[in-house]
Structure formats: structure tokens, C-alpha cells
């Protein structure tokens, strides 16, 4: 039997896509920016337009709309603040529901007011040395959290070299140790900027395995 097909919308460098691939999906990514290191089939296009045109061709859709409008990071005077970015989650949700397909919406903790029935995942739930909280809204609601975070390890302070035995990585902004970040997140192909926005593949592997069970059970019933 062929693998179920998953659309990875707003795909970025492919952290989410790799997780779904490891779970057993055929992954196709779409983003409006060039992504030469994306590890699967890739289409450069507007994600919402692509969903409208092709969403029904997939078994599942994952969407990671831009997080800047929801970010709680501090912005410098030279940067555009969160109020200068669009909040796309409601529009994305409406588009995904119109396809009639199971979907997942991912975003940062600051988006919790716009997320529905969300699950929060952290790298420490998967024995990763990274503190990166991400919210996942799943429809239908079928995904369960593995366990609680474990933040007993400290987050490395700015300007200090991380010790893998003592520190969790908090990867955002202009961090300097790219190789440490790659190891901490379980990603070995991304640039520093791509890592700064990426989802550790372990998160979507966990979600994808549960989605795959649901799809398999639905096919067997039919």
C-alpha cells in the first residue's frame, strides 16, 4: 500500500516534514521562500493558495503559519514588532476546514489564545537537550501528550558556551553554536537561520504516528 500523503504548508527548512516522514508519510512541502535544503518534494508558492488549489489531494495537512505576530521575544528598535505582522491562524484554520481533511496547525506559545484544543510539546519530552515549546492544534482531536516537560537542566546563559551535560538549548535569534543547536534539535541539514524557526522532527514524528493509526483504522473500516 502506498504511503499516505501529507502537505507540509509554510514548511520552512523541513523539521516538521522530517518528523512526518519518519512516522511513515509521503511529505510534500510548500513555502513562499526558496528552500534549497528542504529534504522532500518542494513547491515554492503561496501556502494558502496552494492549500485552496491542492489541499483535497492530500490525506493530512500540517500548517505552520508565520509566528512573528505571536512571538513573545523582545524586538529591538530596528526590528518590526509583533503588531506589524499578520495573524494568519484563523484564516489558515478556515482554509484547512474547507478541505475536509485532517489537519494540524503549529505555532509558538504566544498564539495560545488563537489555538483550539491544542497540545504543547517540548524537546525535553523526547530526551532532546532543547527547551522549545510549540503548540499543536489537531483536528480531529486525537493526539495526546507523551508526558510533562523536564526543565531540571538549565538553559545556557547568553554569551556562554553550552555544556551538553548541564544545559538545555534555547535556540532563537542569533545564537552562535550551530552544531550544538543541530545536535540538540535532532537536525543536521539546516542553516542557523532555518534552525532558529524549526520544529524538532521528534514532535511531528510523535503526532504523525498517531495520525497514521487513525488513517489506517479508517481505511480498514471502509
Short description:
The chain has 222 residues and is α/β, with parallel strands linked by helices. Helix content is 28%, strand content 17%.
Topology:
Blueprint: E1 5-9, H1 15-23, E2 26-31, E3 41-44, H2 47-54, E4 60-63, H3 89-99, E5 103-107, E6 118-121, E7 134-139, E8 154-155, E9 167-168, H4 178-185, H5 192-197, H6 201-221
Parallel strand pairs: 1-2, 1-4, 2-3, 4-5, 8-9
Antiparallel strand pairs: 5-7, 6-7
Radius of gyration: 17 Å
Number of domains: 1
Number of strands: 9
Task: Tell me the strand order in the biggest sheet.
Answer: 3-2-1-4-5-7-6
CATH superfamily: Vaccinia Virus protein VP39
Q: What count of helical segments does DSSP give?
A: 6
Based on Cα principal axes, name the global outline.
Answer: globular
Helix vs. strand class: alpha/beta
Helix percentage range: 25-40%
Q: What is the string of helix and strand elements?
A: EHEEHEHEEEEEHHH
Our measurement of the CA-to-CA distance between the termini, rounded to an integer number of angstroms, reads 15 Å
**Chain-averaged pLDDT:** 84
Would you identify the CATH architecture? 3-Layer(aba) Sandwich
The CATH first-level class comes to Alpha Beta
Instruction: Assign the CATH topology.
Output: Rossmann fold
Q: What share of residues are in beta strands?
A: 15-25%
| Low-confidence spans | 74-78
Largest sheet, in brief, is:
7 strands, mixed
Amino acid at each position: 500500500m502506498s504511503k499516505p500523503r501529507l502537505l507540509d504548508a509554510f514548511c520552512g527548512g523541513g523539521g516538521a516534514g522530517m518528523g512526518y516522514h519518519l512516522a511513515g508519510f509521503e511529505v510534500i512541502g510548500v513555502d513562499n521562500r526558496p528552500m534549497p535544503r528542504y529534504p522532500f518534494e518542494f513547491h515554492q508558492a503561496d501556502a494558502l493558495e496552494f492549500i485552496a488549489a491542492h489541499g483535497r489531494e492530500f490525506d493530512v495537512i500540517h500548517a505552520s503559519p508565520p509566528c512573528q505576530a505571536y512571538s513573545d521575544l523582545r524586538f529591538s528598535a530596528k526590528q518590526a514588532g509583533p503588531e506589524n505582522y499578520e495573524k494568519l491562524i484563523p484564516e489558515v484554520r478556515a482554509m484547512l476546514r474547507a478541505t475536509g481533511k485532517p489537519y494540524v496547525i503549529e505555532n509558538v506559545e504566544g498564539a495560545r489564545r488563537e489555538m483550539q484544543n491544542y497540545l504543547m510539546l517540548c524537546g525535553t519530552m523526547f530526551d532532546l537537550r532543547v527547551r522549545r515549546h510549540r503548540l499543536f492544534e489537531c483536528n480531529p482531536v486525537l493526539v495526546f501528550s507523551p508526558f510533562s516537560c523536564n526543565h531540571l537542566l538549565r538553559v545556557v546563559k547568553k554569551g556562554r558556551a553550552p555544556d551538553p551535560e548541564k544545559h538545555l538549548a534555547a535556540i532563537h535569534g542569533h545564537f552562535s553554536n550551530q552544531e550544538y543547536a543541530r545536535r540538540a534539535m535532532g537536525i543536521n541539514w539546516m542553516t542557523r537561520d532555518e534552525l532558529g524557526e524549526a520544529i524538532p522532527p521528534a514532535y511531528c514524528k510523535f503526532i504523525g504516528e498517531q495520525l497514521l493509526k487513525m488513517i489506517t483504522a479508517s481505511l480498514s473500516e471502509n
